Amino acid sequence: MTQRAFSTELEEWLEKPGDKTIRGLLRAFEERGFAILFMLLMSIPALPIPTGGVTHVFEVVVMLLALELIVGRRTPWLPKRALRHELGPATQKKAIPFIVRRVRWFEKYSRQRLEGLLENRLTLSVLGVAILGFALTAFLAPPFSGLDTIPSLGAVVLSLGLILGDALMVLVGVLVGVAGVALVIAIGSAAAHFLF
């Protein structure tokens, strides 16, 4: 990947004049496009705040992108209208700077570990299955329950591990996501047993 800190690259892209669209973001971070989109889109459902189902749109987009990764695409495909979508002022001035601060914290503890393995097509397909599972679980979690937070957080950490080339961080993301899936299933089945 790169020796420069990803948080610095993202901050510089944000401050640089020019195209602040999804297309502009993907052009700036070409080889990391999938991971960046997964991280940005799943960051909102990963926040421990009630969203009332608004995040379902993000989760559906992540599931579709995960399917692309599973079948072997190296760069994300999105409709032209989505690519032209301008990142709004709230995203540019609040959301991305918030994400940059969190990424910096992860960068302190991250090291490039087994980076070549993370670039392998088979590995990326398997990780696409994991992202798909985490996004689907977050999508199916009962609204206002907060249960979508943990699988979403797993997807964010996994994606950040891909961006930083850190297999250990990817593994941590997978474990967090699997714990979130297990929690949703356990609480969901207990609630179903109680109600029915």
Keywords summarizing the entry:
single chain, 71% helix, 196 residues, 10 helices, mainly alpha
Description:
The chain is mostly helical and 196 residues long. The protein is globular. It has helices at residues 6-15, 22-28, 33-46, 56-70, 80-83, 89-109, 115-118, 121-140, 149-164, 167-195. 71% of the residues lie in helices and 0% in strands. The chain has 10 helices and no strands.
Largest sheet features: none
Rg calc:
16 Å
The number of helical runs is 10
Share of β-strand residues: under 5%
- How would you state the average pLDDT, rounded? 87
How many beta strands in the DSSP annotation? 0
Morphology call? globular
Unreliable residue stretches:
none
Number of domains: 1
- CA-CA gap between termini: 51 Å
What structural class results from the helix and strand content? mainly alpha
In sequence order, what are the helices and strands, one letter per element? Answer: HHHHHHHHHH
Helix content: over 70%
Describe what is shown at a glance.
This protein is mainly α and 196 residues long.
Q: Could you outline the blueprint of secondary structure elements for this entry?
A:
Layout: H1 6-15, H2 22-28, H3 33-46, H4 56-70, H5 80-83, H6 89-109, H7 115-118, H8 121-140, H9 149-164, H10 167-195
Helix pairs in contact: 1-6, 3-4, 3-9, 4-8, 8-9, 8-10, 9-10
